[in-house]
Each structure stands twice: as C-alpha cells, then as structure tokens.
C-alpha cells in the first residue's frame, strides 16, 4: 500500500484526506495548528460578483464554490457547518450593473442561483439587522463555519483510518522516498502533498524551491444577539471590507481586515476594531 503524507490540515488538507481511498493508500496528515486560517474562518462563499481583473483567481474561486456545494452533499454537512442562505450585496451605486454582471456570469456558473434586485423593505426582511436600503440578492451564496468543518471532517477521517500527527513537520528527500520528521515522530512516504498555505515557503526552501506565498492577517469582530433565527439569514457583503456574517445561535460576525504587513502576529488590535466598527455602523438598524 502506498504511503501518502499530507502536510497542512486546513480546509484543503482535511478535505483531501477524506476523498482519498484509504483502501489503497496509507494516509498521514501533519498539522501543527498554529495560525491556521480555516479554524478562524467565517467563510463567505460568494465569489461570482468580484470585480478582480485576475481571471485565474476568479476561475479558481468560482470552481471552488461549485465544488463546495458537491462537498456538502458528499460529506453530509449540516446547516451549522455549511449554510446556503444566499448573499446580499450592498452598494451605494451600480446595483443594476452588478445584476447584469451576475446574469452574464451565471451562464458558466449556474451555482450563483436566483438573482434579484431587492427594495429597501425586501432587504430588511431578508436580514433584519440591516437598515432599509436597496440591494442585490443571489440565492447561491453560502457561509462555512471553519472550526466546525475541521472538527467534523477530522472525525470522518479518523473513521477512515487516516493518521494524524499534530506537530510541526520537516520534509527531506531520502533516495526514492520522502522523510517527514516532527519532534516525536519520523515516517517515510511515497508521495507528499503540501497544503500548508504560507508555511509552504519554509517547508520547501531547504529543498531548493522558492515560492511566493505570504501570510495575511484577518481580524473579525464577533458579538452575540438574541436573534436566534440568525442561522437562516443570508450573509451581507458591504461596500467596504466589513462584511456581515450571521452565524449560529444569534452570533454575528463582522470582518475581516486584510493586513499584509502583520505576518504571523495573531494579536487583535484596537485599530482593526475601530476600522471594522466605523465601516459597518451605518448599515445596521441599531448602532
């Protein structure tokens, strides 16, 4: 039986571990857990109306959104983990143009679902926390609770006899196989799959590979409300970086920042809190 090592247990690594056939492969997943983006992710799944000019990025994001819908069925994800409640887009101008863009992109991305321009009243009805304002709604938008996803998928992988080592891995080539070492373990593998995000860089540099991957810090604000029906609400993409993600049990998330200079600094900052609250305060019914 071939041995496969997966280094990185975020959304890509843990998903791959569950799709690989453990009757054909002996699989070990390594993940230190430090700075893992998926674990802290609120996960808006709604890439279709991005105006980024990078066509490769859009194709990757579009295909990823389509795959997530299949994944939810394949792995029987609960609504707590993956909720396809739609997306509301708020813009100060250009909603009609955005709706036209949505119709064009729906031709090769049917996952976008229904497209509807909403009145102020309709917007507030779909997401009661929002102040009345016109918006665009697409029914295919979703959210993914990263922490619950990882916990659930790890349980499935353990049932499939996937091995887990929760330590930092070092990779070396030894003749015709790979050697993966941690503080307390050393194993060999026929194939290695690296899904470690920005940690790919220090993993690959000793092997002579240079990759342009850098961490980006994202900060969120999480607060609790008495709105127990929040699990049914769509996410809202605001006209700035402060998106609104209704979660389970009345929890509401605002964010995230995109900080390229912070590197691996995981400490919350006053500046991020003030920026997120300032960018979002005018869209709520109650400050």
From TrEMBL:
Gene3D superfamilies according to UniProt: D-Amino Acid Oxidase, subunit A, domain 2, FAD/NAD(P)-binding domain
GO cellular component terms listed in the entry, alphabetical order: cytoplasm
Keyword Oxidoreductase: yes
Cofactor needs: FAD
GO MF entries: oxidoreductase activity
EC number: 1.-.-.-
Keywords: Flavoprotein, Oxidoreductase
Protein family according to the UniProt entry: Belongs to the DadA oxidoreductase family.
Protein name, entry field: FAD-dependent oxidoreductase
